[in-house]
Write a structure and sequence with these properties.
- It is a single chain.
- This protein is mainly alpha-helical.
- The chain has one domain: Four Helix Bundle (Hemerythrin (Met), subunit A) (Up-down Bundle).
- Helix 1 crosses helix 9, helix 3 runs antiparallel to helix 5 and helix 7 packs parallel to helix 9.
- The longest helix has 37 residues.
- The two termini are 24 Å apart.
- The relative contact order is 0.12.
């Protein structure tokens, strides 16, 4: 009888895990369909003009490099007509990151080499952004170390899980695209708060971004926990 109950409990847990995985997969599929519709014309333009996925990966990396350099030079606290360049190049780098995968899929140029290059450029880009924030005085180096560790672990967890045959698409609250969007919005808000308080209060306020980065760190930790929990549950039951 006890064996039967345990078997039923295991079946329920396994079913819950499968449902959760299917929900996340459906969510990611809907997001991809929406993104595909939005970027359809730009992607067709890039394909028509012979932009390869690898070229787009490097363009995305260069945009993020420019953004990081501007951050390190303090551009986010320049006047509005210059500070907008920081979030613009950061977001443009994220857009190219979306384009390279879509172009690869539509032109049947998906390859292990391309995936390897894209993944490594993403990690280097993440580190460059953090270094830019440190040099720009927006992030303490100790917190930066924690953030870099969490970002690398989030990526490593996915890579290791996929080596075990697990589908990690859509697993985790703060994946790379969400991180870039959130960071872009935070930089825009920081620029506006700094400039508006400088204009109206005569003294710029710089309290928003440090608080945001603490929240950002906890969201990264939460994302890592989600992935580790998902992997452990899946590996136990399969």
């Amino acid at each position: 009888m006890l064996t039967l109950v345990n078997s039923n409990e295991n079946g329920i847990k396994k079913g819950n895990t499968m449902n959760r995985s299917e929900e996340l997969s459906d969510k990611r599929k809907k997001q991809k369909e929406l993104i595909s519709k939005i970027i359809d014309k730009p992607v067709n333009f890039l394909i028509k003009h012979d932009f390869t996925p690898n070229i787009l990966s490097f363009l995305g990396f260069l945009c993020i490099l420019v953004s990081a350099i501007l951050i390190s030079l303090g551009f986010i606290h320049y006047r509005f007509w210059l500070s907008w360049l920081v979030p613009f190049f950061l977001l443009l780098g994220g857009v190219f990151d979306v384009f390279d995968g879509e172009v690869a899929r539509r032109t049947d140029k998906e390859s292990n080499t391309g995936a390897f290059l894209d993944s490594n450029l993403d990690r280097v880009s993440d580190i460059i952004i953090i270094l830019g924030l440190i040099l720009g005085g927006l992030l303490h180096f100790l917190l930066a170390f924690v953030i870099m560790f969490l970002i690398i672990m989030i990526s490593y967890t996915r890579a290791k899980a996929e080596n075990q045959g697990l589908n990690m698409q859509g697993i985790g609250f703060l994946e790379r695209a969400e991180r870039l969007i959130l960071l872009t919005l935070a930089l825009i808000i920081e620029s506006w708060i700094y400039n508006l308080t400088r204009i109206f209060l005569q003294t710029p306020v710089m309290i928003f971004f440090p608080i945001f980065m603490i929240i950002f760190t906890f969201l990264l930790l939460f994302t890592l926990g989600q992935r580790i929990y998902f992997c452990i549950i899946k590996l136990i039951h399969y």
